[in-house]
């Protein structure tokens, strides 16, 4: 949930993508700066926290990772419910994993509307020579759906920090915009209230004078 209590933003982030694209590796690299640690296999569907600071603003990220159930069955909406941001990960050497990203974009937009910030990460960029997902296709798709696109390598620690930082910035911006909309909406409601007649017919029908 998003709150701004005590001056800190609390954001829920989910990692989504096909099995083996490197979601857990990205998370572990980001939180613990480790790769291929045996810890990896024991990580269960839960979240890890990261506290960051952007321009003096404190942000708590709860980053949710799966226990690998995406390899066996679909992840239900309960996993991404109330998310402020999602990182959709594919493996640049695996075209099917990119198709899966497109499915996730559709599902998240349908279920959560415009309020969720989406970023797309083409992971395993250290395997550039084995790339099968065309660069232009990935980038133009991301632009079309309004998601920034990053190339990452959890293995070589490329762009991992940038990815999460960008997401945090965009979630903060969206939170500010929504708060502003809420203020505008509330003030509009008050004006309408003020102007409402003291007594009015229930259905706007005829009134005797
Ligand atoms: P998942 O959580 O999406 O299922 P994992 O993916 O993080 O478990 O990673 C799946 C495999 O991809 C792991 O290899 C992991 O080491 C590898 N991997 C993750 N990120 C990268 C990367 O950036 N570059 C390369 N080259 N490999 C990566 P194993 O062999 O353990 O299955
Ligand atoms: Mg995993």
Q: What does this protein structure show overall?
A:
The structure is a single chain. The protein has one domain: 3-Layer(aba) Sandwich (Rossmann fold), CATH 3.40.50.300. The protein is of the alpha/beta class and 209 residues long. Strands 2-3-1-4-5-6 form a 6-stranded mixed sheet, sandwiched between helices. It has 6 helices and 6 strands, in the order βααββαβαβαβα. Helix content is 39%, strand content 22%. The radius of gyration is 22 Å and the shape is globular. The site of guanosine-3'-monophosphate-5'-diphosphate (G3D) has 17 residues, from helix 1.
Total beta strands: 6
Order of helices and strands: EHHEEHEHEHEH
What is CATH's topology name?
A: Rossmann fold
Give the CATH class: Alpha Beta
CATH superfamily: P-loop containing nucleotide triphosphate hydrolases
In brief, what are we looking at here?
It is built from 6 helices and 6 strands, in the order E-H-H-E-E-H-E-H-E-H-E-H. With 209 residues, the protein is of the alpha/beta class. The protein has a single domain (3-174), classed as 3-Layer(aba) Sandwich (Rossmann fold).
